[in-house]
Design goal:
Number of helices: 8
Order of helices and strands: HEEEEEHEHHEHHEHEEHEE
Helix content: 25-40%
Largest sheet: 4 strands, antiparallel
Structural class: alpha/beta
Distance between the termini: 16 Å
Strand content: 25-35%
Oligomer: single chain
Shape: globular
């Protein structure tokens, strides 16, 4: 059950979209003039936890697929066999074969550069086991170990699924950030994504909503608006 106040969330998203469109909004007791940017702004939820000890309490980690893709511009690279490389080529996705990976020669700098160039990777089922041997631990260290893609999978569908998946992982800090949308999405899509993301995080916590201190949402260049107190 969502504890988010739907009227507050509704107004916050209206203000975020208005600000991103260049309109003036009233936020935090002041009028702020928006500006239309020449890139698609991401809308992010910023969540701070309370009554939670990151040292003593069990750390949590969970992934959840949102109904609408919050960041459609994430860059993917397929580390594939011949069939998957051909498929990636057809849908305009970057790809690398075993031979391409061998050329990197386990060079840490080159692997780091590769990890930086893309937001996520996918690998053919018959290649995924070879990746640590071919590239060393570089992709794992960057938190970008490839997602498995099998010969029967629809590649575009699988890529969209990864783009729609958010991850909550407790580290040593009490704040979590997660993308819930972008300014080209409809008001309703952002509302639904935000509610589902907050509910999913609450389900991972020991005391659920009692462990959530506050939630703000904001666009990349816009002001942060509190939606949960």
């Amino acid at each position: 059950m969502s504890k988010l106040n739907s009227a507050l969330l509704d107004k916050a998203i209206k203000d975020i979209l208005a600000f991103a469109a260049g309109e003036e909004v009233h936020v935090g007791g002041a009028d702020k003039k928006g500006k239309k940017r020449n890139f698609t702004e991401t809308i992010e939820a910023q969540i701070s936890l309370k009554n939670y000890d990151p040292v003593r309490d069990k750390r949590f980690s969970g992934t959840f697929k949102l109904p609408s893709v919050p960041r459609p511009n994430l860059k993917c690279c397929v580390l594939g066999n011949a069939a998957h490389c051909e498929q990636a080529d057809r849908i305009g996705v970057d790809h690398m074969s075993v031979e391409d990976l061998k050329k990197l020669n386990k060079n840490k700098k080159l692997v780091k550069k590769l990890a930086k160039r893309y937001d996520f990777f996918m690998a053919s089922d018959n290649m995924i086991k070879q990746i640590p041997r071919l590239l060393g631990p570089g992709l794992t260290k960057a938190g970008k170990f490839p997602t498995l893609i099998s010969s029967s999978d629809d590649m575009q569908g699988k890529i969209d699924e990864v783009k729609a998946t958010i991850k909550f992982q407790m580290k040593k800090v009490m704040c979590l950030n997660v993308a819930v949308g972008n300014v080209t999405m409809t008001h309703k899509e952002i509302v639904v994504n935000t509610q589902l993301a907050a509910n999913f995080l609450a389900s991972l916590l020991k005391k659920q909503w009692q462990n959530i201190g506050c939630i703000y949402i904001k666009s990349t260049m816009g002001p942060a608006i509190q939606i949960y107190f």
